[in-house]
Amino acid sequence: MGYVGMATGIIGAITGISGAIMGYVSYRRSNSLKSLDLRIELRKAVNVAQSGLQQLSKLIEYANKSREAVASATGRFKFGMMEKWKQEIEADKNAVKRLFQNAPAADKSYDNLTPKELESTLVDIHRLQVQIDELRNKYDAAVRADDEERKHIREDIRTRHAPKQ
Fold it and tell me: 3-class SS at 116?
């Protein structure tokens, strides 16, 4: 009976030690995979933010030309509303420049960051993306409003030039 108890104890000790070793290895591997996932997610977010910033710059220019054309067509080009628009455009162009300066480069390596630093950087990138989205939504709405105004202008022209019966 003594030998069975001793054999069972030895097997139990070996199993416990090997279980602890396997748990540690799994923990390390899990952290490694978590870091890899975070780095991949971060690189994707940086690429999306960089692309968004480039598109935003073009959208602001397009929206400005659109607003100027509509204002000119309606005879409101020299009014205070356009002056306010121009000030907003300049302020937003400066904001985009600052966002470009604060945005990390797309080719930056994040291999040496800890999971906590990766998470923090990812949150910063998402905050940047929110700012980009807000500006994009503002100028998308401005372009849509200009398109509606163009429709009204066309309808007015058709109405004025329609043959009278």
Answer: helix
- Dist. CA 137–CA 59, nearest whole Å: 10
**Cα Rg of the chain (Å, integer):** 30
pLDDT in tens, 138-163: 999 999 999 999 898 888 888 887 77
On whether the CB atoms of residues 122 and 45 are closer than 8 A, the answer is: yes
Alpha-carbon separation of residue 124 from 32, 46, 57, 115 (angstroms): 22, 10, 21, 14
pLDDT digits (tens, 9 = 90+) for 28-41: 777 666 777 888 88
The C-alpha atoms of residue 155 and residue 98 are separated, in whole angstroms, by 42
- Which candidate, 50, 33, 48, 54, places its Cα nearest to that of 118? 33
